[in-house]
Amino acid sequence: MGRGLPLPFKKRGGINVCSIKKLIGRKIDYSAYAFIAPVMVFFLTFVLYPMIKGVYLSLFKFRGRNITFVGLKIILIYSVMIYL
Asked: Rounded to whole angstroms, how far apart are CA atoms 11 and 15?
């Protein structure tokens, strides 16, 4: 009578023991990755790549065919000009 919860609901340290047993024996369902993959390809191609390329190109100074690496110097110059 006073033994507590039935076996499927027994908890040890706040973790449901039966749910852990189910997770260990469960097979992984890869169908979700099939739905996420096209979105990730779109995001990487049209959002993330142009952002990274823009940061990369901002580190150079272009004068016709002459390309000079200036690093963060140009960014610092323009940021000081904005606040003056």
From this structure: 6
Looking at residue 30, its pLDDT comes to 82
Burial class (CB in 10 A: 0-12, 13-18, 19+), 58: middle
Neighbours of 43 (CB within 10 A): 12
38 torsion bin: left (phi>0), alpha (psi -120 to 50), beta (else): alpha
pTM for this one? 0.55
Rg (CA), the chain: 28
pLDDT category of residue 63 using cuts at 50, 70 and 90: very high
CB 30 within 8 A of CB 24: no
